[in-house]
Amino acid sequence: MSKTKEKTPNYPCGDCGIGVKYSGIKCTGSCNFWFHGGCVNITDKELKKLTEVETSSWKCKNCSIFILPLTSNLSSSPCLSIQQTNATSATKSDVLNNSIKELERSLIESNSLEDPSNEEHKLQMAAKIGSALLEENKTLKEEKFKLETRLTIVEGKLEETENNEVKYIEKVEILLQKNAELQEQLDKEKQFRRETQDIFEEYDRQKEKALREQENTIMLLKVKIKSLEENKENNTTQSQNTELRRTMINSETQTHNLDILPQNSNSFLLAELTYLKLKQREMEQSILNLQTQITSKQQPEAHSTKNDSPTSSGQPNKTLSRSTPSKNQNISLRRTQNKKNIFSVSLQAAKHKEYLETPVDVNRNFKNTPQSAPQTHNNRDTDPRTHSNKISIKPPGTKITPNSDEFYADLIENEIKRQSLETHKETRKAMLSQVKKPNKTNSDIEEANRNCPETSKGNSNRHFLEIRQQEEAKAKEIITTRIFLNRKFWRKE
What we know:
This protein has 493 residues and is mainly α. It has 3 domains: 11-170, Zinc/RING finger domain, C3HC4 (zinc finger) (Herpes Virus-1), CATH 3.30.40; 173-252; 266-492, no CATH class. Helices cover 68% and strands 3% of the residues. It has 13 helices and 6 strands. The protein has helices spanning 44-49, 52-56, 61-74, 80-110, 119-249, 267-298, 301-306, 318-323, 327-338, 345-357, 405-435, 442-451, 457-492, and strands at 11-12, 19-20, 24-26, 34-36, 380-382, 389-391. Strands 1-2 form a two-stranded antiparallel sheet. A two-stranded antiparallel ribbon has the order 3-4. A two-stranded antiparallel ribbon has the order 5-6. Helix 4 runs antiparallel to helix 5 (119-249), helix 6 runs parallel beside helix 11 (405-435) and helix 11 (405-435) runs antiparallel to helix 13 (457-492).
């Protein structure tokens, strides 16, 4: 604000109420009053030194009091002590101002300042005013320092708040970004759940459709099974009728009453039958070996070399096997004597001869099997090693069908006999070649026996017997597998 001039309007002082003519200052606060310099404790020199900025920002005591609480609210808790000190300093300055004002009023009233005669009193008043001004200046400096410190504290706090505001703004931005990402992820999860729900619903529909189709197929299969069972019953009756016809056709060579065997046999029974037959053959072989050993001990060595079939080859004596009938033959004779033969014996003999002349083929088909084969050709089997008759396991006169267990057992037995006969012939030739070698002395024979103990008299029979047993075991395995496979093939046809 500009300084006051001499020709100024009459403005009342805000403190004393007297019009301000010169040496005055205007308050820039809410009151807008003019004040005398003495009323506000400002000298003429100080008024002259004031700049335009200071005069434009000057405020009276009352206006400054109303503003101070607002500024004090800006400060935080650490500035409470500063506020208290400011309050105390303000009270001191008020006391000084009041004392100065009282002095000025007393001077104005008494007009002692205008009286030049009263020098001493003037000096005293000037000293008092100077001391008061010094104290006021001191208090103002303290207030200024406190305000500066307060300002620096407030500025520091303001910077901290600004920094915190920046940090909070950054955090808010980060949180908003995270919120957007989470919202996007939530939308994706919702979409994924919808897709999975649709997939499961579609899967349930497919399963339901498949179950319905399965139910329909099950119903159709039940109907087919019923029809197949009916066809099976019809086929069984027809097969029984055809079996009766076959038995009636082949009954001209039978010597016993007509019997019908069950068609559906078990493979387990077949295996047991073959096992029993093989065990029986092994027992017979061991008995024959014992007989050959006994006969070889009884007969002289010269007689054994002249015979065509030496005893060391494992062949039994033909006269013994033919002259001494076994118990099985006696049992069969007793059975046949009780029954009278009411059929043609010549036809039976012719069919039996034809069957013996035909070779046994294991891999033959069901269609190639001769239906006109004799029904009693398996009652007696001829052993090629002993050339003696023996009775088979099954009863006499049983009918053999291609799908029966007896048929496969007989095939196995005949094949084993054939292979054992071939091995027997080979061993016999080998033994004869060893016996007929000329120009061998006793010393050569002893040396050969030492080098190869298997060719000695005591061990030759055992050696060829072991070879034969090994070959028979191999033949059994091969034949059983082939016959089981052929049996499956026949059943399919």
